[in-house]
Design brief:
Helices cover about 45% and strands about 15% of the residues. The protein is α/β, with parallel strands linked by helices. Strands 1-2-3-4-5-6-7-8 form an eight-stranded parallel β-barrel, surrounded by seven helices. It is globular and about 45 Å long.
């Protein structure tokens, strides 16, 4: 058994359906998954849609208890966002992302639709995670878009709005974990990208941290993409990252 739940969600960001299917089976299939969850985002979903999700991440793999993070970053008028959530609830995602900058009405409508859609279909309610400030952005990037704020301050502001509107958590960079955990409490989900194992390149992540550092600060889940997907042995890489995060086999 594991001493703690595996916090690692692998970001399978590719348009190659066959490759995604093999990778998910390799790291998430069988009786002892190497990851705690799978993230499928815009790149995959725009290429393959709901049928691609069912094919690459089928019920037998899901039955192992591996989570499903559908990272669509919804941002539109309230009615359109509600319709988007309604369209994907039947895929039974554990998490769906939505941009907090869409505002109170959009967020509240999304929360209501997630609950109503799940009840209508008799499935578990997807938990909604707010997108605050993308981990590829720094202060100069925010200023260029008319937001004269430090990224950490803006993350806290948007996380507070997300919590007020009933979202289950947020996406945040590693540098905001401690402040968000203090501000939003122990049950607020912190899904943290920008995670790089010791010794790996940070690529385009301007605010990165190691797995153990992030978990110790209070991260709920860690999103790791390229260090797993681009590894010569993805399963071994995923297992090593989980161990680095403090997950051990007894």
């Amino acid at each position: 058994m594991r001493t703690r739940a595996n916090p690692v969600y692998c970001g399978v960001d590719t348009t190659d359906l066959a490759h995604a299917t093999r990778l998910i089976q390799l790291i998430a299939g069988g009786p002892n998954p190497a990851v705690g969850g799978i993230k499928l985002g815009l790149e995959f979903f725009l290429a393959h849609g709901a049928p691609g999700v069912r094919y690459a991440f089928p019920t037998p793999v899901r039955a192992t208890g591996v989570g499903f993070f559908l990272d669509l970053k919804l941002h539109d008028i309230p009615n359109t966002v509600a319709g988007g959530i309604r369209a994907v609830v039947e895929l039974e995602p554990t998490y769906i992302t939505i941009h907090v900058q869409g505002g109170r009405e959009m967020l509240r409508v999304a929360v209501a639709e997630a609950a109503e859609g799940a009840a209508r279909l008799g499935v578990a309610r997807p938990r909604l995670l707010g997108v605050t400030v993308l981990t590829s952005l720094d202060r100069s990037d925010l200023e260029a878009t008319g937001v004269p704020a430090d990224p950490s301050d803006q993350v806290l502001r948007l996380a507070g709005l997300a919590r007020e509107c009933g979202l289950d958590g947020v996406i945040c960079s590693p540098l905001e974990i401690a402040a968000l955990r203090k501000a939003c409490g122990p049950d607020f989900v912190l899904m943290v990208p920008g995670i790089r194992p010791v010794g790996s390149a940070i690529d385009d992540q301007k605010r990165a941290m190691t797995p153990r550092q992030a978990v110790d600060l209070g991260a709920t889940h860690l999103v790791v993409g390229r260090p797993i997907c681009k590894a010569g042995d993805p399963r071994a890489a995923a297992e090593a990252i989980a161990r680095e995060a403090g997950v051990n086999q007894l």
